[in-house]
C-alpha cells in the first residue's frame, strides 16, 4: 500500500464550536505540500487541535459548530477522504479500539472495506514500519507501554495508507524513553518524503530537528507566523514567547527561576543537612494489595523541593500517593516528623481526611479529578469549609488565592470550563488554601504551554522559598532543573 | 476447552438463550433440577474448572436465597399452612415455589456462565455482526465501550483518593458516592468522546465495511445447539411426566 500524501489547503478557514461566541480559530490561509513537515505552534486555546481535527475530518457536522471558508485535501473535503490522514492524540489508551494488537491495526482497513485477504499483509507491514513487528498479532494492547500504544495507533493509520500524519501532542503523556520511540518511529515513516507531517506539541524541542517549517496560529488572527524554524525564532521569537509559545532553539529546555536566598527560611544554617519532614522506611507500595515497589527508604527534606523520576510503570505515582497518605501502605512505615504530625500518630495513611488538609496537600495528574465544586471560588473554599473555619477567614483566603493564581476574573466560572493552564493553577490553589506543610504534585507540568509552565514553576519555587516542603513526580527535564533540590530516581520494571 | 473454542460464540449465546426460555416456561423444581444436572455434565465434559466455576457463580448463590426467602414468605398460599403473620404466610405451596425459584436462578446462572465460559468479547462481536447480522455500529461501539470500563475503574480510584486529599473523605458514604458518580460520568464522557473521535478518524461509520476475522459456523455449532435443546427438552419432559410441570402463566 503506497501512501499518498495529498496537498493540504486552508482557504480563509474558521471554526466556531456550537454555543460559543468566539471563534476557536479563524482566517486561516495555509498550504502544505506533499512531503512537507510542519510544526504547528500556538498558545493554549489558539486552535491548533481544531485545525488537526478539521484535517482528520472529525470536527463533526453543523450541530457541532459553524464552519467558514474551506479545508481541502487534494480537491476534496477531509470527511470524504477517510484514511488519507493519521490522527494521533495525547492519551494513548483512549485511542485504542480493540484488545488485540493485530485486530486494532486491522480496524481502519475494515472500515475502508479493504478485502480480507489484503488486510493481514497490510497489518504486518504497518506493524513492521512502526517497529512493533516483534509482537504477536494476538498480543493484548493493554500490555503495551505508552510509547508502543502511540505507535500502534500510527500503525492503524499506516495500514489504511495514510499519507498525512497529524500528531496532536503525541508525546505529552509519555516518559522520555517513550518520547524518543515515537519520534524515531515517525522519523522512519517520513524518511522517504512520501508522507507529510503536521505536529502540535507545546515543547517544540522534540520535533524541531525533524520539521522544515513552523506555523504559528493565534485564534481569530489565523496564521501569525510561517517559515523555517531558525528564521521564525530569529524574527518573531520574543513576541511568540509572550503568547506562551514554546519555541525550540530560542529557549532551549530551561527557564530561569530566581531563587531566593536560603538563609531567610533556614536561619540555623542546616541547609546542607535539613531535617526530613517525612521519612519512609522499608516501604512497600501498590494497589489492591499487590506490591509494585518494595524496600523503599527515602526522606523528604523540610523546606526543600524533591523530585521523583523514573520510567512509566516504575511506581512513581503510587509511591507519591502513599507518601501523601492517600493509598494504604503494603509494608514498612511512613512517618511525618513532630510537631507537624498529630501527637503520637506520625503515619499519614492512618489520618482522617480532614487531618491531611493542613499537613499534606496533593495535586493530581488530572486536575479534573480534584474538582468538586460548581465555581472556582467555591473550589478553593472546599478545604477551609471542611475545617469549619470562620466565613470571614474563608473569604479573605479565597480572595488572596484568586489574586495570586490570576484566577480573579474566573471566580464564578465552573472549574471544568477552564483552560488546561487555569485548571492546573486552580488545582494547586485548592491545596494551598489550607496551607499544608507538604505539597505532593503528580506530573504538574503535563500539557502546559511556556507561559503557564513558567507561572507554575515560579509559584512552586516561591512556596518552597517560603518554607513549604515540595515533592513532585515528573518527567520534565526543565522542571527537574528548576526544582530538583533533592532527587529520587525509581528503577524500572516491577 | 478446545472443543468449546470451535463453537462460534453466538451459538453458545444461542444455547444459553434456549435454556433460559425453557426455564421460564415452567415453575417447578423438577425441570430446573434436570437442567442443572445437564449443565453440570456439560461443564464437566468441556472441562470448565470446578473451583473457578463456583467462584463465578458466587453472585448467584447470594441472589438465589434472597429470591427464595421472599417467595417463601409472600407467594400465594396453598396446601397446609405452617405459619401466618400479617402478609407473611408460609404454606406447602410457597415452600415448593421457593425451592423451585432458587433452583431456577441457579440453572439460569449456570447456563450463562457455562455457555459463555471464556468467550472473547472480540470474537463474540465478530459473530454478532457476521453471523447474526447485527448492525456494525452497535456491535463495535459496544465492544469499544467494554474496553473503557477498565479505565473507568482506575478513574474511580483516583477520584476517591482525590476526595480524601480534599478533606471530603470523612463524609457519609451516600453523599460521597453521589459526588463520585457524577465525577465519573464526566470522565466517562471525556474518554468516550476521545475514543469516538479516534474511531471516526480511522473511518468508522463511513460506509460498508469488511471483517478481517472470519466468523463461521459448522458442525460444532449444531452439536452445541442440539445439546442445549436436549437438556431443555429433558427438563420440561420429565417435569411433564412426573406431573410437576406448572405453566408460568398459572402461578
Task: Report on the architecture of this protein.
- The complex is a heterodimer of chains A (494) and B (251).
- By secondary structure, chain A is α/β, with parallel strands linked by helices.
- Chain A is 31% helix and 22% strand.
- In chain A, strand 6, helix 5 and strand 7 form a beta-alpha-beta unit.
- Residues 250-270 of chain A have low confidence and may be disordered.
- With 251 residues, chain B is mainly alpha-helical.
- In chain B, a hairpin with a 2-residue loop joins strand 1 and strand 2.
- In chain B, helix 3 (29-46) runs antiparallel to helix 10 (219-242).
- Chains A and B meet through strand 5, helix 2, helix 3, helix 4 and helix 9 of A and helix 8 and helix 9 of B.
For this structure, what is the CATH class of the largest domain in chain A?
A: Alpha Beta
Which sheet architecture does the biggest sheet of chain A show?
A: 6 strands, mixed
Give the N-to-C terminal Cα separation of chain A: 40 Å
Number of strands of chain B: 2
Task: Describe the global form of chain A.
Answer: globular
Structural class of chain A: alpha/beta
Strand content of chain B: under 5%
Tally of contiguous helical segments of chain B: 10
At a glance:
The complex is a heterodimer of chains A (about 500) and B (about 250). With about 500 residues, chain A is α/β, with parallel strands linked by helices.
List the topology elements.
The complex is a heterodimer of chains A (494) and B (251).
Chain A: E1 8-17, E2 25-32, E3 37-41, H1 48-56, E4 65-73, E5 85-88, H2 101-111, H3 116-129, H4 146-159, E6 164-168, H5 176-190, E7 196-200, E8 213-217, E9 223-227, H6 229-242, H7 248-251, E10 276-287, E11 290-301, E12 305-309, H8 316-323, E13 331-336, H9 353-357, E14 360-363, H10 376-386, H11 391-404, H12 420-432, E15 438-442, H13 450-465, E16 469-473, H14 477-483, E17 486-489
Parallel strand pairs in A: 3-7, 3-8, 5-6, 6-7, 12-16, 12-17, 14-15, 15-16
Antiparallel strand pairs in A: 1-2, 1-4, 8-9, 10-11, 10-13
Chain B: H1 2-5, H2 9-25, H3 29-46, H4 50-56, H5 58-74, E1 81-85, E2 88-91, H6 92-115, H7 121-130, H8 136-165, H9 173-201, H10 219-242
Antiparallel strand pairs in B: 1-2
Helix pairs in contact in B: 2-6, 2-10, 3-6, 3-10, 5-6, 7-8, 8-9
Amino acid at each position: 500500500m503506497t501512501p499518498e500524501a495529498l496537498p493540504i489547503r486552508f482557504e480563509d478557514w474558521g471554526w466556531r464550536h456550537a454555543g460559543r461566541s468566539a471563534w476557536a480559530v479563524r482566517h486561516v490561509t495555509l498550504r502544505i505540500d506533499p512531503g512537507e513537515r510542519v510544526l504547528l505552534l500556538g498558545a493554549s486555546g489558539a486552535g491548533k487541535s481544531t485545525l488537526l481535527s478539521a484535517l482528520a475530518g472529525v470536527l463533526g457536522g453543523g450541530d457541532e459548530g459553524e464552519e467558514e471558508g474551506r479545508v481541502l485535501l487534494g480537491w476534496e473535503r477531509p470527511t470524504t477522504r477517510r484514511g488519507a490522514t493519521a490522527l494521533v492524540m495525547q492519551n494513548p489508551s483512549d485511542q485504542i479500539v480493540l484488545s488485540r494488537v493485530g485486530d486494532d491495526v486491522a480496524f481502519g482497513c475494515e472500515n475502508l472495506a479493504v478485502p480480507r485477504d489484503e488486510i493481514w499483509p497490510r497489518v504486518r507491514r504497518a506493524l513492521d514500519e512502526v517497529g512493533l513487528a516483534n509482537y504477536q498479532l494476538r498480543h493484548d494492547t493493554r500490555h503495551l507501554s505508552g510509547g508502543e500504544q502511540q505507535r500502534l495507533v500510527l500503525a492503524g493509520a499506516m495500514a489504511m495508507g495514510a499519507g498525512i500524519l497529524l500528531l496532536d501532542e503525541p508525546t505529552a503523556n509519555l516518559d522520555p524513553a517513550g518520547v524518543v520511540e515515537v519520534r524515531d518511529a515517525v522519523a522512519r515513516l517520513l524518511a522517504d518524503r512520501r508522507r507529510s507531517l503536521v505536529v502540535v506539541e507545546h515543547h517544540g524541542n522534540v520535533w524541531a530537528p525533524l520539521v522544515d517549517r513552523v506555523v504559528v496560529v493565534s485564534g481569530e488572527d489565523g496564521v501569525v507566523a510561517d517559515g523555517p524554524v531558525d528564521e521564525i525564532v530569529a524574527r518573531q521569537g520574543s513576541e511568540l514567547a509572550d503568547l506562551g509559545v514554546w519555541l525550540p532553539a530560542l529557549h532551549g529546555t530551561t527557564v530561569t527561576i530566581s531563587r531566593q536566598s536560603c538563609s531567610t527560611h533556614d536561619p540555623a544554617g542546616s541547609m546542607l543537612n535539613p531535617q526530613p519532614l517525612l521519612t519512609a522506611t522499608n516501604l512497600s507500595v501498590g494497589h489492591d494489595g499487590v506490591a509494585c515497589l518494595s524496600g523503599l527508604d527515602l526522606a523528604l527534606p523540610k523546606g526543600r523541593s524533591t523530585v521523583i523520576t523514573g520510567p512509566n510503570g516504575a511506581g512513581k505515582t503510587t509511591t507519591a500517593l502513599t507518601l501523601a497518605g492517600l493509598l494504604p501502605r503494603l509494608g514498612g512505615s511512613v512517618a511525618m516528623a513532630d510537631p507537624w504530625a498529630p501527637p503520637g500518630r506520625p503515619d499519614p495513611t492512618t489520618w482522617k481526611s480532614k487531618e491531611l488538609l493542613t499537613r499534606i496537600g496533593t495535586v493530581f495528574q488530572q486536575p479534573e479529578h480534584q474538582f468538586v465544586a460548581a465555581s472556582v471560588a467555591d473550589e478553593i473554599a472546599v478545604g477551609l469549609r471542611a475545617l469549619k473555619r470562620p466565613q470571614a477567614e474563608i473569604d479573605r483566603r479565597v480572595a488572596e488565592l484568586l489574586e495570586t493564581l490570576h484566577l480573579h476574573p474566573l471566580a464564578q466560572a465552573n472549574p471544568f470550563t477552564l483552560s488546561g493552564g487555569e485548571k492546573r493553577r486552580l488545582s494547586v490553589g485548592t491545596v494551598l488554601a489550607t496551607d499544608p506543610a507538604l505539597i505532593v504534585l503528580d506530573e504538574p507540568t503535563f500539557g502546559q504551554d511556556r507561559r503557564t509552565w513558567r507561572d507554575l514553576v515560579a509559584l512552586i519555587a516561591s512556596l518552597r522559598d517560603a518554607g513549604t516542603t515540595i515533592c513532585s513526580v515528573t518527567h520534565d527535564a526543565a522542571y527537574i532543573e528548576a526544582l530538583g533540590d533533592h532527587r529520587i530516581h525509581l528503577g524500572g520494571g516491577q | 476447552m478446545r472443543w468449546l473454542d470451535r463453537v462460534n460464540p453466538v451459538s453458545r449465546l444461542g444455547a444459553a438463550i434456549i435454556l433460559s426460555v425453557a426455564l421460564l416456561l415452567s415453575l417447578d423444581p423438577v425441570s430446573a433440577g434436570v437442567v442443572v444436572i445437564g449443565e453440570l455434565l456439560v461443564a464437566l465434559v468441556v472441562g470448565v474448572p470446578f473451583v473457578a466455576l463456583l467462584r463465578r457463580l458466587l453472585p448467584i448463590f447470594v441472589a438465589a436465597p434472597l429470591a427464595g426467602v421472599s417467595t417463601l414468605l409472600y407467594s400465594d398460599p396453598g396446601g397446609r399452612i405452617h405459619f401466618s403473620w400479617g402478609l407473611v404466610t408460609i404454606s406447602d405451596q410457597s415452600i415448593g415455589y421457593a425451592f423451585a425459584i432458587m433452583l431456577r436462578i441457579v440453572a439460569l446462572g449456570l447456563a450463562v456462565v457455562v455457555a459463555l465460559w471464556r468467550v472473547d468479547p472480540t470474537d463474540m462481536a465478530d459473530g454478532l455482526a457476521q453471523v447474526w447480522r447485527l448492525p456494525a455500529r452497535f456491535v463495535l461501539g459496544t465492544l469499544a465501550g467494554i474496553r473503557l470500563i477498565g479505565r473507568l475503574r482506575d478513574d474511580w480510584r483516583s477520584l476517591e483518593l482525590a476526595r480524601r486529599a480534599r478533606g471530603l473523605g470523612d463524609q457519609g458514604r451516600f453523599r460521597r458516592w453521589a459526588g463520585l458518580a457524577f465525577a465519573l460520568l464526566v470522565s466517562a464522557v471525556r474518554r468516550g468522546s476521545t475514543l469516538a473521535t479516534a474511531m471516526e478518524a480511522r473511518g468508522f461509520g463511513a460506509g460498508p465495511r469488511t471483517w478481517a476475522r472470519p466468523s463461521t459456523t459448522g458442525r460444532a455449532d449444531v452439536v452445541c445447539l442440539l445439546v442445549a435443546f436436549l437438556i431443555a427438552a429433558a427438563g420440561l419432559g420429565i417435569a411433564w411426566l412426573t406431573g410437576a410441570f406448572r405453566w408460568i402463566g398459572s402461578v
